[in-house]
Amino acid sequence: IILFGEPIRWETNLQLVIDVLLTNGNLCSAYQPNLCTQLPVLACNIDLMWMAEAPSPRFGHGMFLLCLEAVYRKLTGRELNYRSLLGKPSLLTYQYAEHLLRRQNNNTPVSTVYAIGDNLMTDIYGANQYNHYLAQRHVATTTAAKLVAQGTGSQVTKGPAEEELGSAGCESQLSSTATQCFSILVCTGVYNPRSPLPSDQNAAVNQMVFHGHRDFLLEPGLVEPGHIVEDVEAAVDLVFQQEGLNPDP
User: Fold this and answer.
1) Where are the alpha helices (DSSP H) in the chain?
2) Which of 60, 75, 105, 121 suits a disulfide with 212, CB 3.0-4.6 Å?
3) What are the residues whose beta carbons fall under 8 Å from the beta carbon of 205, sequence distance 6 or more?
4) What's the rounded Cα separation, in Å, for the pair 108 and 7?
């Protein structure tokens, strides 16, 4: 089962997905809530809310998944398991984004990635998580290179993320060359600038309403943006400034 985005008729789609799950794909049979296995579920775009023209955020696909999980738990007494969660803040999504950046850059390696978004729980969380991954990968690669040079290490050192990609058959295409990823939060979407970030993230974590998916843990450092600007134009100006570039007049 692949879930791409929030449907228009939620009750109909909730019913259909539950029908497929509880009949193991055999829609002509009755529910079997005690199935020993569950059909694989892949979900994309797990934002709980998104911003449109209304003054308040609208329900996103993450909200639909929340409803689906609640219905499945109510009917079976078990948690719905996902084979994979794709889209922000998934690590794989940022690796694929870097892959596309390299392709657009004539297959030239990219050293720095800037991630601009309006949602702390997906855009900023994912960008900071990717930055942590890049830092850990850089340390592991550097350490491995030193060991090889000393004749005491193997030629290849992989972390959990690379092993996961390798098992999916996409490691060579999505290997990262960037060394850092900067998160930039804009104030024109889900994030409300009238609700400032707490100065002490560690003390405030237990008071924070976590709008991320249940399979992602709330870590204070991951929802703290590197920069906060007014809008996307200001974010692009910041990138030019950080890179020492002068935009065309």
Assistant:
1) 10-22, 61-76, 91-104, 125-150, 160-168, 171-174, 201-204, 232-243
2) 121
3) 218, 220
4) 39
Whole-model pTM above 0.85?
A: no
Phi, psi of 233 (to 5 degrees): -60, -45
Q: How far is the CA of 120 from the CAs of 88, 160, 192, in angstroms?
A: 11, 25, 10
- Dist. CA 151–CA 139, nearest whole Å: 18
CA nearest 6: which of 119, 118, 87? 87
Closest C-alpha to 124, from 48, 235, 225, 228: 225
CA-wise closest residue to 24 among 10, 12, 15, 36: 36
According to DSSP, the residues that pair with 86 across neighbouring strands are: 44
Is the alpha carbon torsion for 211, 217, 220, 221 positive or negative?
negative
Task: Give the single-character DSSP code of 120.
Answer: I
